[in-house]
Amino acid sequence: MNERIPLQLYVLLAMLSVVWGCNWPILKIVLGEMAPMHFRSWCLGGGAVGLSLLALATRQSLAVPKGAWPALIAASLLNVGAWNICVAFGVPLLESGRAAILSFTFPVWGVIAGALIANEPLTRRRVVGVALGLAAVLVLIGDDLAALGRSPIGSSLMLGAAVGWAIGTAVMKRWPVRMPVLSYTAWQIGIPAIPIILIAAVNEQGSFNPFSLSLWPMLGVAYNVFICFVFCYWAWMKVATSLPVAVSSLGTLFVPVIGLISGALVLGERPHLSDYVALVLVVASMAVVLIPADVFSRRAKRAGAE
Questions:
Q1: Please, what's the b/e burial string for 2-36 (b: 16 or more CB within 10 A of its CB; e: otherwise)?
Q2: Is this model's pTM higher than 0.70 or not?
Q3: Would you say 238 and 9 are in contact if contact means Cβ atoms under 8 Å apart?
Q4: What are phi and psi of 54, to 5 degrees?
């Protein structure tokens, strides 16, 4: 299957990889001072308000089409709600790089969910891409498997985040909601924000005020609200609603590599040989799925002619 991807979507995937990858050590820093649901309340609440204002400023309707509420609610609770709750509680229990690796087994579950829910074909290229991506994950985990076993709750939460995100993305493709991307994203973030804010208010003590934090965690909250939620969630919804689940999910495989590098720079985690091996596997995985098939066929024909 020849899956041509517009240049704009390539750029968005690259930007998502960098921004999301750099956010893993930032999450670790913020959650060292702020309760998980307090933090997510600011992220989702601020993101929903920001996206709604942008939608209104660009004259995009926030009205949900008739009959679309079940699909919208299901997708938002899985794609955004489950992810944000599981990550908020799972990151403090693991190293930031390892948390990124576990959560970004998402592409593996994305291909499976795309086939089972969105009726997408399991092409040979997608299967190879998943295999390479999974190999990268196994290489990165390596000797840390025993360490992960000592934190079963953290590991389970990060895997739960990955599975929820994958299923939610497949639901988006299977039952699409016909509305502008900005407005759709605002609702996707706003719906799970309601239960998360209520959970924080009831179960977590302390103030919701991020200005009570020290400088770097406070800047981390701002980074998440304005960049990770307003920009990145809009970019992800644009990519996820424009591409097959298998392609969009495999396009995020570079995130855990960026997460490991940023964790080394910010938190002092030192990359090993396995990290570089995984980098090669990740790049190969993305190349197999994202580069149009006719590029390989043209090169093969030229090589044969020579």
A1: ebebeeebeebbeebbebbbbbbbbbbbbbebbbb
A2: yes
A3: yes
A4: -65, -40
CA 273 to CA 280: how far, in whole Å?
A: 11
Three-state DSSP at 251 gives coil
CA distance 243 to 100: 23
Per-residue pLDDT of the chain (306 residues; tens, 9 = 90+): 445 678 888 889 889 989 999 998 999 999 999 999 999 999 999 999 999 999 999 999 999 999 999 999 999 999 999 999 999 998 888 777 777 777 777 777 888 888 899 888 888 888 887 788 778 777 766 655 555 555 678 778 888 998 999 899 999 989 999 999 999 999 999 999 999 999 998 988 766 788 889 999 999 999 999 999 999 999 999 998 888 876 777 777 778 778 878 888 888 877 667 767 776 777 777 677 666 555 545 554 554 555
For residues 183-222, one letter each, b for 16 or more C-beta atoms within 10 angstroms of the residue's C-beta and e for the rest, the string is: bbbbbbbbbbbeebbebbeeeeeeebebeebeeebbebbe
Give dist(CA 229, CA 45) in Å, integer.
Answer: 10
Domain ranges of the chain: 7-294
